[in-house]
Amino acid sequence: MDVAIREETQRLYNGTTTIVRHVTHAWETDPFNPLLHAARDALVAGGCEAKPGKWKLGRLGMATGGGLLVNDFGVPTIGYGPGDEAVAHARTSTSRCRASRLRRTAQRSSCTA
Questions:
Q1: CA distance 71 to 85
Q2: The pTM is what?
Q3: If both were cysteines, with which of 72, 87, 101, 111 could 93 make a disulfide (CB 3.0 to 4.6 Å apart)?
Q4: What is the rounded CA–CA span in Å between residue 3 and residue 16?
Q5: For the chain, what is the domain count?
């Protein structure tokens, strides 16, 4: 069996073309980084549940921009959001997130900013 990174040619806004490699790099922020402590404290102060840990993204094709921030620029990064992690960003997700939950998550995210 041959294994390769998927590539495709894409046309850019200026008319040139480039080869895009579809690669997602794993990332994590040091659990002792002050950002995590500050975010957890802000969420708890706002009456929110804070569950530190790692995402369990078992589905291929799921990623975040965190890899770019952490790996390429050294920016400590956290992920936080509403809904069920198992179906996050799924194309065929039958799970829906209630508007009230989205509003609550936006408010809680602003606590960490």
A1: 23
A2: 0.55
A3: 87
A4: 28
A5: 1
Report the C-alpha gap between 71 and 77 in whole angstroms.
10
> Residue 88 corresponds to which tokens in the numbers above?
């996050």
Assess if residue 34 is contained within a domain.
yes
In a domain, 46, yes or no: yes
Q: Answer yes or no: is 19 within a domain.
A: no
The distance from CA 33 to its chain's CA centroid, rounded to whole angstroms, is: 18
Beta carbons within 10 angstroms of residue 70's beta carbon:
19
The pair of three-digit structure tokens given for residue 94, joined into one six-digit string = 């039958």
- In a domain? residue 33: yes
SS (H, E, C) the chain: CCCCCCEEEEECCCCCEEEEECCCCCCCCCCCCHHHHHHHHHHHHCCCCCCCCCCCCCCCCCCCCHHHHHHHHCCCCCCCCCCCHHHCCCCCCCCCCCHHHHHHHHHHHHHHC
| Residue pLDDT, tens place only, 57-84 | 655 555 677 888 888 888 888 877 666 6
Residues in the chain: 113
